[in-house]
Amino acid sequence: MGACLGSFFNVCIARLPKKESIIFPSSHCPKCNAKIKPLNNIPIISYILLKGKCKNCSARIHWHYFVVELFFPIILILLFNRFGNEFSLAYFKYVILFSFSIIIFFTDLISGIIPDVLSIPLIIIGILFSLFPSSDLHIWGSLIGAGFGFIFFLSISYLFYLVKKREGLGGGDVKFIAAIGSFIGFTGVLFTVLVSSFTAIIFMLLILKYDPKKEFSFGPFMVFGFLIYIIFGEMLTHSYLMLFGLSF
Ligand SMILES: [Zn+2]
Q: 72, CA 20 to 30 Å: which among 13, 99, 234, 244?
């Protein structure tokens, strides 16, 4: 199931930044337009059998097709395990968050775009989930999380623009952190901002060799940040409080 969903997300990753329909036309090679036969469209397996090339014209198939089909099932297993090995409300809530987020991760990484058609509905879905009585986050928690994330990133974006006269943090990032906040609340946003900023700084120092002029996408770091929060957050917060002799 995860690999098949991943296969659909790949279509979104390829087409949403170009504002193309995700339903029509059916799967085709972007170079020679040859229709992809069902036998060559099996998640994970076809990519390996075709050695990452179009059967008709040998054009390279982007690596995201393979990576998403491989990693989305792993995320589903991690979430299932994290939420008590049952199909609970929390499990479905986070499956939806990660379905949208894995698309955002790659559209931002590859095209530098976080599509509004994903981030804005995600804010609303997060708030709607908090209305269930058995939700892990209360409606106020969801609204405060979304509002705090939005205002916090909007302020940084505005201040950066005032000082540097160019865009530092895009509007896509501001809407995406609001969506994250509506799912995991105030503490979750703080944790996500902290982890994603530190990993982005390390990435900038090691990979970009500290070149402030080089631009890079922040979205993937945010996804990494809240993945860590959702899977290990409770454990990490507990160990952190234990350092000060506190426990809960
Ligand atoms: Zn082709």
A: 234
pLDDT at position 196, please?
Answer: 95
pLDDT of residue 217 exceeding 70: yes
- With a cut of 90, say whether residue 86 has pLDDT above it: no
Whole domain around residue 21: which residue ranges?
A: 1-82
Q: What confidence tier does 170 reach under pLDDT thresholds 50, 70, 90? A: confident
CA 227, CA 184: separation in Å to the nearest integer?
11
**Judgement on whether residues 150 and 220 belong to the same structural domain of the protein:** yes
Band (pLDDT 50/70/90 cuts) for residue 247 is low
* Distance (Å) from CA 100 to ligand 1 centroid: 28
What residues flank ion ligand 1 with Cβ within 5 A?
29, 31-32, 54, 56-57, 59
| Residue 21 CA, ligand 1 centroid: distance in Å | 20
Q: Are 98 and 75 in contact (CB under 8 A)?
A: yes
Expressed in angstroms and rounded, the spacing between residue 102 Cα and the centre of ligand 1 is 25
152 and 39 in a single domain? The answer is no
Q: What's the distance, CA 226 to chain centroid?
A: 9
Q: How far is CA 194 from the centre of its chain?
A: 16
Judge if 39 and 71 occupy the same domain. yes
Q: What does the angle CA 11 – CA 231 – CA 176 come to, to the nearest 5 degrees?
A: 50
pLDDT at position 43 is 92
Dist CA 8 CA 2 (whole Å): 10
φ, ψ for residue 168, nearest 5 deg = -105, -50
243 and 159 in a common domain: yes
Q: Are 108 and 172 in contact (CB under 8 A)?
A: yes
